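Reading a protein record of the kind used here takes only a little practice. The record below shows the convention in full.

——
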Amino acid sequence: MTAPSRIALVALGGNGSDASSERQQAVSIAARAVAVALEGGPDVRLSALYDTDAYPVGIGSDFTNAAMAVPTLLEPEDILARLHEIEARAGRIRQKRWGPRPIDLDLIGLGDLILPCVTTQSAWRNMSLEDQQEHWPVELILPHPRVQDRGFVLIPLCDVAPDWVHPVLGKSVRQMCAELPADQRKGVVRSDRQEA
């Protein structure tokens, strides 16, 4: 008997160009690659595209962001490896934490899976911004430890998975988005131009 699929939530972003249209095209191409790589079939959902302020401030051009909900039978480590392959093909080189990148693909959640455990996930979730800039985990942390803090992730996720519940915090995407401080929402603007 085949295991049931789980919904992989993937955040997409890129700031490889000063031109919004070029960033949007890069994110749209990456979204198509993600759907194929994760074997999502016809039920893949892709959010609108959003133009967002650079994060952290001063790292380069502004971003274009989106989110996907992808049904998949793949294991989390396989998903992450495939996302990293797509990033590499797009020209991403991982040299600096939160440096400029043509494409950034983050596995935000996979169903109600918690990795590696609640204690570790909570430790990374509660880490200060200063420490986050200096350290990154050597193992996959799910849900992504910063999802609840980032408007550029939660606002697109509201388009595709508003009812997904964070398995540690017990809050839906919609609730976490509503609780964001105003400064985390104001720089996330739905783009007028949407790539196919």
In short: The two ends are 36 Å apart (CA to CA). Residues 20-37 form the longest helix (18 residues).
